[in-house]
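Notebook entry, cofactor series.
This is the third protein in the set we're modelling with a bound small molecule. For this one the ligand is magnesium ion. I'm keeping the input format identical across the series so the outputs can be compared line by line later. Sequence and SMILES below, as received.
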Amino acid sequence: MIQESPKEKILIIDDIPASVKTLANKLEEDYLVLTAANGPEALDIIHAEPPDLILLDIMMPFMDGYELCRLLKQDEKFHNIPVIFVTARAEEEDQAKGLALGAVDYLVKPVSAAIVKARVRTHLELKRHREHLERMVEERTRELNKALTLLQAKKESEFRRAAEVHSGRMAALGEMATSMAHEINQPLNVISITVQSWQLLNRRGALTTEKMLHDVQTLLDNVNRISRLIDHVRTLGHPSQEICGFYLQDVLKDALSLCRMQFLHHGITINLDIDESLPPVRAVQAEFEQVLLNLLSNSRYALGEKKSREGNFEPVVNIRICRKDKDRVCLAIEDNGGGIDPLAEENIFDPFFTTKPPGQGTGLGLSISRQLMLKFKGDLLLINNPGQGACFEIVLPG
Ligand SMILES: Nc1ncnc2c1ncn2[C@@H]1O[C@H](COP(=O)(O)OP(=O)(O)OP(=O)(O)O)[C@@H](O)[C@H]1O
Ligand SMILES: [Mg+2]
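Returned structure with ligand:
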């Protein structure tokens, strides 16, 4: 059903009833016609129901047409209503005055029906177009403002996040540097005290080969510990190493060739499940390999520990290379070494968090691995199955 739009309203203002009637007759068919005999009466009508167009006589009692037009053009609410002067005054300067006051047209009586209808139609059309344009501009401005606000909010939140990440990183680095100094100090002290004790014994002529052989193992253990700490930290930020594209299975093969013997030695079965159709990933290959080695070493340790507790335990590592979702691929290392205590789960990626006996683990493996993966726009995720095993997923875009 086509909805008929309501008729537009025309207000005719003239003090001569015959003139009002003539004009009204010409327009009534197409418009809703309102009439007023003078300025004050017209103002009442305009305030009560603003018309779409006004036909205005000039010479009227109380308030002439010029004055009324001036009042309307000053008023924010009514200044957009088109005013057409319809008057017997045909002087050029009267017309000029009327148009200067803001009227859109000027008709001299007597006016033919065709002219009045044509002018009214034209000015109503212009008014409609103008209002349509104004609405469009308003709408566009509103949309633009909305987009701008969203953009600003997005930029602000991105900036806040970047600042948070940055300050978090700085804090983590500071924390790590302090702890690192502490961690290295301990074995250094042991080495220093051992060597000093040798000097002391030597001065007294009491340094024996047995004593030295006994202490050498302590020295070696502590040197090893320092070199492990340094090894871990060395993998952090190698500006000289380039990001390149490589296949996950190729790096996995390299990493396994480095540690396969250790796995065999502990009787650990390695199962591989590789989706060969996946695209290459982008990262620094040596650093990615370090992440793999860290995870494999953790699994090997957990499995070795469990094996030493339960004689008939059959240790297994399942390694899967598969699609994680539409935009990411994943290399998962899953073991049946008992998993991680739920209480420790939330600290697992913290630097220096370790459950290994004092002197055995640095607690840096996972935290550094995770940082590396984040650097490559990937992630390192833990899927823990307490009592059963742990699964670490290396995720990368691809
Ligand atoms: N596969 C796993 N199964 C059970 N626990 C794990 C496993 N991987 C990691 N963990 C737990 O997470 C802790 C932190 O691991 P991370 O690799 O960061 O340090 P670490 O292995 O203790 O020390 P390092 O890497 O220097 O040997 C470990 O001490 C262990 O408790
Ligand atoms: Mg480790």
